[in-house]
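Blinded run. Sample ID left blank on purpose so nobody reads anything into the name before looking at the predicted structure. Input follows.
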Amino acid sequence: MVDTARSLGYETVIWAVDSLDWKNPGVDFMVERVLGRTFSGAIVLMHASDSSQQIQDALPLIIDGLRGKGFRLVPLSELTRLGSPARRDPR
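Blinded prediction complete.
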């Protein structure tokens, strides 16, 4: 699928850090997980759905924590302009 999309002029994108918010593991768990696994250029997966009941409480702490570590949050369109993908999705 990745090769087909690319041959048609599209690029596929996948997340690098899963917050596991859909499991509702607790605010502290999500904050520690995201802050501990994020790296430059990482895409963090979070859900805006009924299954994710705690992300609204974790998100401000995650954003503050990432900024405190020197990360800058940017839209995907800017991220793709900043450089080439770090790795090819093996799926």
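Unblinding after everyone has recorded impressions. The chain has one domain: 15-82.
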